[in-house]
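[Meeting: bench + compute handoff]

Bench side (C.D.) handed over the final construct sequence. Compute side (W.E.) agreed to return the predicted structure before the next meeting so the bench team could plan truncations. Sequence as handed over:
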Amino acid sequence: MRHSQSTIKDKTDISALNNKSQFKEVITHIALYTELIIMSVIVLFPILWIVGSSFNPGNSLASSRFIPQNPTLNHYINLIQNTNYLRWYWNTFKIAVITMVINVFLSTSLGYIFGRFNFKFKKTALLSVMILQIFPSFMAMTALYVLFLTFNLLDNHWALILLYSAGQIPFNTWLIKGYLSSVPKELDESAMLDGASKFQTFRYVVFPLMKPIISFVAVTNFMVPWMDFIFPRLIISTNSNFTLAIGLFDMINGNASNQYTSFAAGAVLVALPITCIYVFLQKYLIEGIMAGASKG
């Protein structure tokens, strides 16, 4: 009898614990989804507002509506026909692509060398690379301006390309080296035992395994010149040489510049390439972020 009562009590306790556990799980899920919804609204609201503003008639954002009553494409047409927007777009795209190619090549080469080879002063070189990434490039703005003035590179896109390419190398080198630390060196040794040269080992064995980190480095290096405003504003002065950032800024800068809805249309077009890249490469980007953070 006592055993039967004890069994019933144990079952009751277990049932109560299960109910309590389920209640906690439900509360946790509600709190989690509530937070996600709030954060989504905070992130998406200004984006949707800019998109809606780009289709609103008139030039003022104050009178714009979230959902336009009389949507129009006039602002997009105005950008293409009455401004140098397409020229600015091409300038920015050209700078971003060349910067990406140069930086990926140099960063991948350096990361592979530091990650796979042992040589004299390797630790010193790595520390030097790490120290270089500590100081922000803004600290050298005056020196860079004088340097580009000396070499007649002001108002020249190559000045921006050199600046962006060199500025990202230290961080990307460490990132790629950290990623290569997770790739077993035995793969290299096996390839070399089969008669492959060091270049062939890199080309056919290591490089295919580096797609996630290379994708991440490529996208981040593409985004820097695509979104940057400070350095183009410092170096570029001719309207036909403008990048998107300074070209759009001039639309709303000053008392006479009030093309806010055209600015919104331009901002929408600026975001399209980055959005597409993230959608199509999100798998590699996530893998690159996680693997590149491993211990080097």
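W.E. noted at the follow-up: Residues 179 and 291 are 5 Å apart (CA to CA). C.D. will use this when planning the next construct.
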